[in-house]
Amino acid sequence: HLTRDDLTATRQNSLVAHLGIVSTRLGDDVLEAEMPVDARTHQPFGLLHGGASAALAETLGSMAGYLRTRAGQCGVGAEV
Question: Which residues form the signal peptide (predicted)?
Answer without folding.
Answer: none
